[in-house]
Design goal:
Blueprint lengths: L5 E7 L3 H12 L6 E7 L6 H6 L4 E5 L5 H11 L4 E4 L5 E2 L3 H11 L5 E9 L5 E5 L6 H7 L8 E4 L18 H11 L4 E12 L7 H4 L4 H21 L7 H26 L9
Parallel strand pairs: 1-2, 1-4, 2-3, 6-9
Antiparallel strand pairs: 4-8, 5-9, 6-7, 6-8
């Protein structure tokens, strides 16, 4: 049985108006073998009809306990050598998967491969580009997740097959917790300086911009996200003892330090970032 080069897991819930772009971007990948699993949480819109137009995709529709649980269901079905999750409102760049597979052949030590991405608006138009730099574990834990899940790939044999799955209790920072846990277990992260995907920001995105909306629901969601970020720091970061005020002060100072370092590293590495195939 042929083992796909890459499995793409797409969690979906009532994003039928976006998922066509996602499916088309995966179907257009060339010179790689791809398995595309759409894990739908019983959408009531036209999602099923849209997916049916793309024969490359396998559609699974069942209730889940949230996005992380839906992604884990897809991880459990994945057969590819490398696995990623691509949100229903995001899309891959043409040639992205070939870049990842070719890079992976040169990095047999890598457990995780990640690259850059573009932000796009609701209509799919470019807004800004996000390039990164070689992995910094402490920065990820103390300053917050800076790796885009839509441009990140996991070697199945050393991550998923070793029972590394998302923590289903995390609803906002599930990617940051996952990366922190993988790094804490000694997994190797490799940076590929290629723009691999488009990340769409819109009114329903789980993003900092929307979580900061000045309404009770937005404020509550923002506080829940902050709680998840703090949980990551306390679990995988430095231990500052039981003094909460001291710990909060240290968190703030470290976050500022790593924010400045992140900006400097992005500037230093931005000239290396390229489009797939270039």
């Amino acid at each position: 049985m042929l083992v796909p080069d890459v499995t793409v897991v797409t969690p979906s819930y009532n994003y039928g108006h976006f998922i066509g772009d996602c499916l088309e971007s995966v179907a257009a990948q060339k010179n790689v073998t791809v398995e595309h699993l759409v894990m739908d949480a019983e959408s009531s819109d036209a999602t099923a009809e849209v997916v049916a137009r793309f024969p490359h995709a396998s559609f699974f529709q069942e209730a889940d306990k949230g996005m992380s649980d839906g992604i884990n269901k897809g991880f459990g079905k994945a057969k590819g050598k490398w696995v990623m999750w691509l949100n229903a409102d995001d899309r891959l760049k043409p040639g992205a998967l070939r870049e990842v597979v070719e890079f992976a052949a040169t990095r047999e030590d890598a457990d995780v491969i990640y690259g850059g991405w573009d932000f796009i608006n609701e209509e799919g138009r470019f807004t800004r580009r996000m390039g990164l730099f070689p992995f910094r574990k402490r920065m990820l834990i103390q300053q917050g997740c800076y790796i885009g899940s839509t441009a990140c790939f996991y070697r199945k044999s050393s991550t998923l097959d070793k029972d590394f799955l998302l923590d289903a209790d995390f609803h906002y920072c599930m990617d940051g917790e996952y990366y922190a846990r993988l790094a804490n277990a000694g997994k190797i992260f490799a940076y590929l300086p290629v723009v691999l995907a488009d990340f769409r920001l819109h009114g329903n995105s789980i993003s900092q911009a929307n979580l900061k909306a000045r309404d009770p629901g937005g404020i509550l969601r923002m506080q829940r996200q902050f709680a998840e970020v703090r949980a990551i720091r306390r679990t995988y970061g430095w231990n500052f003892g039981s003094n909460r005020e001291l710990a909060d002060l240290a968190d703030g100072l470290l976050a500022l330090m790593f924010r400045l370092e992140r900006g400097l590293l992005r500037a230093l590495h931005s000239q290396r970032l390229r489009e797939p195939g270039n």
